[in-house]
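Hey, sorry to bother you again with one of my protein questions. A protein chain has come my way and I'm curious about its shape. It would help a lot if you went through both lines with me. I owe you a coffee for this, so here goes:
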Amino acid sequence: MNKKEKEKYKKLLIKEKIRILEAMGALQKDSLELRRAEGENHGVPTHLAELASDNFEKNLDLNLTSSEGKLLAEINNALAKLVSGKSKQALFGICEKCQGKVSQKRLYALPYARFCIACQRNKEITG
């Protein structure tokens, strides 16, 4: 992979990282506002449907934050591969399972991809 291609993927990864950090910040802000609202309503009887809705929102926020955190780790790993050439004994654009090349189309769509399409499919099927 030439320097120009690496720079293109680096920009894609940084753009995605910024998007995720902004989304996580928005989730944290929403969660904080919800907690403040709960504090203001402390002692006021609440309808069970409202409690269920609030609990659903909290769980959704936690799940999204967890998913975004995992994705952020994948992006940071891919950036490390690009910058240093290696990370966890792997090269950027090389499948961590079969050591084959990850296609340019796949990397453009998912620049933090660790596996080629065949190995990813196999991983999803076998668990």
Summary: The two ends are 31 Å apart (CA to CA). The longest helix spans residues 3-40. Residues 3-126 form a domain with the Four Helix Bundle (Hemerythrin (Met), subunit A) fold (CATH 1.20.120.910). DSSP finds four helices and no strands in the chain.
